Amino acid sequence: MIESETRQADWRRANPTKYDAHLAVQRALKAGYLKSQACEVCGIEAVDAHHDHYDRPLQVRWLCRRHHTRLHHYGEDLFPLTSLVLDREIGVSVQGRDGQG
Question: In whole angstroms, how large is the CA radius of gyration of the chain?
């Protein structure tokens, strides 16, 4: 593990699961397994990967720095998951959710 005494190194030591999730996203992006998308709120291309669940490291929301910062400051209710994202997360098809074929 990192032996530096910086604030960033302190965070990494205090949050190993979060750090591992961040590294998994970086590796997946570099390998081409994961591709960034525009900010889900405003559509800007320069984005951060946001984890709603660190135990699913490659399941991320793409947010620009402005909206990512706001999400962390004001909470998850600011930009709730859309029903489509929830459907993918829990494995429910959009067609089957409302009983329509």
Answer: 16
C-alpha torsion sign, points 79, 81, 85, 88: positive
User: Quick one: which of 45, 47, 44, 25 has its CA closest to 34?
Assistant: 25
Contact call for residues 21 and 51 (beta carbons, < 8 A): yes
Beta bridge partners of 48: 63
pLDDT digits (tens, 9 = 90+) for 19-67: 999 999 999 999 999 999 999 989 999 999 999 999 999 999 999 999 9
- Reading the block at residue 60, the tokens are 């991320």
pLDDT for position 74: 82
**Which token pair is 96?**
């089957």
Helices and strands counted in the chain (H then E)? 5, 2
